[in-house]
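note to self — DONT lose this again. spent like an hour looking for the file last time. sequence + predicted structure for the chain T wanted, 145 res
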Amino acid sequence: MAGSVGGGNGSEPEFQVAPMIDVLLVLLIFFMSITTDQILKVDKSITLPLAPDAKQRKVDLQNQAVVNIDWLAAENRAVVKFGQQLCDPMEQVAEFITPMKTANPKLQIIVRSDGDTPAIEVQKVIEQIAAGGVDDISLSGINRK
């Protein structure tokens, strides 16, 4: 028998490559899907403000959510997104966050805002997040140009 292991003929057992390739492909697809999910939460059009003393926060995928604030200078207004969901009016932020906070008491919100966004607009969003029951709120910035 060509692939037998315990035969008395002294032949070496063969290493099967096909199952190993299957496992590697499954792992590759798994990690790509996780990475894609996290990348979709970050709005690339937002230019974060410079914060030279900013400290990197530990990433906790289970307990973190992202709110993006994009400032439209031409229209003099802020566009708020919770993940990929547009919050218009801004009060929808609290409506989206409340069930998540109920399901996960450790929920943390990261606010990513354009550097040009007036502080009063960021404050309004933070108030809506707090109205949703979240008390762990972080502002995102970059510590270098």
